[in-house]
Design brief:
Elements lengths: L8 H27 L7 H93 L5 H28 L2 H5 L2 H16 L3 E5 L8 H22 L4 E8 L2 E8 L15 H12 L3 E6 L5 E8 L5
Parallel strand pairs: 1-2
Antiparallel strand pairs: 2-3, 3-5, 4-5
Helix pairs in contact: 1-2, 2-3, 2-7, 5-6, 6-7
């Protein structure tokens, strides 16, 4: 058997207000007729005014209750959205931390294990090549040439492993600090693209949080990637320095500039990623287009007090 449906609250409230207003109007009209003769000309206007007053009071209480409910609903909505935003921010921070840990682990495994294995393979190939050269037989020349080709392929693999490991997590960021990591990334950018990249590194705190250093490096890395993919620029200028309790990072190019509203586009994952990295630390990233053209990425990251 189905449970009876509860009465709708709006029907109950409407009946209460209707009964209250009716009682007010009938009671006040009865009092007016009792104390004022019906022959007096202002009796009917008083009754009409009484009706208007009763209706106004009724409307006031109805609207007050409705707006109170709306305000409570809006307040609850804002509270839930704030809690959800905080949960999402904490989750994003945790996920990004795990990603950096995985990148560091994979980078070290590539560098230490695969890189060492390839280096050992190259040494073995050279030993075999030296043994073949000692025999001084012309029939072995094709085999020696083949070994040289394989050694070249192993060298290319070693370079690829180092490049991938550096892309995942540069050793300089953990061992030598943010300034060296930024300079190495700028040098890799120049070698890869042939585009000049002027980097100025100012005064930085000695004890800079790994989270702040990682965020600054990743924002710099993503900004350079966007220059290559979208800017159509011929020059990049960058600066990183600490101003008070904030680490300032600026990357500017002379390209075509960023499109209007593109920084808020959900498809612009690189821009969103830079903004999220900064917001995780309580900072911010601004994207602007200069009057002369080109895009400027300005990141402000609080460094003091960040673990």
């Amino acid at each position: 058997m189905n449970d009876p449906q509860p009465a709708r609250p709006e029907v109950r409230i409407a009946l209460i207000y209707l009964l209250g207003a009716s009682a007010w109007i009938l009671g006040s009209d009865h009092l007016l007729q009792r104390f004022l003769p019906e022959s007096q000309s202002f009796l009917q206007p008083l009754k009409g005014m009484n009706f208007v007053v009763a209706t106004s009071i009724l409307l006031y209480f109805v609207l007050r209750r409705a707006f109170n409910g709306w305000r409570q609903a809006e307040s609850e909505k804002r509270r839930v959205l704030s809690e959800m935003s905080e949960m999402f921010r904490n989750l994003s921070t945790r996920i990004e931390g795990l990603r950096e840990e995985d990148r560091t682990r994979i980078s070290r495994e590539l560098h230490d294990q695969l890189g060492q294995a390839l280096t050992g393979m190259k040494m073995d190939l050279r030993w075999v090549e030296s043994q073949l050269e000692l025999r001084d037989e012309r029939a072995l020349n094709p085999l020696t040439d083949r070994l040289v080709d394989v050694e070249g392929q192993v060298d290319d693999l070693i370079l690829s492993v180092r490049r991938i490991a550096t892309d995942l997590r540069p050793d300089a960021l953990d061992e030598l600090g943010l300034p060296v990591a930024l300079k190495q990334e700028a040098e890799r950018f120049v070698l890869r693209t042939g585009m000049p990249c002027e980097l100025e590194v100012g005064e930085l705190p000695e004890k800079l949080s790994p989270k702040v250093a990682t965020a600054a490096f990743r924002i710099f890395q993503e900004a350079l990637t966007n220059v290559v993919r979208h800017a159509q620029a011929s020059r990049v200028q960058a600066r990183c320095a600490a101003t008070g309790e904030v680490l300032e990072l600026a990357v500017a190019d002379n390209g075509r500039g960023i499109g209007a509203g593109l920084e808020m586009d959900k498809q612009s994952l690189g821009l969103l990623g830079m903004r999220e990295r900064a917001e995780m630390l309580g900072g911010k990233v601004n994207f602007t287009t200069a009057e002369s053209g080109g895009t400027r990425v300005q990141a402000s990251l609080p460094w003091k007090g960040t673990p």
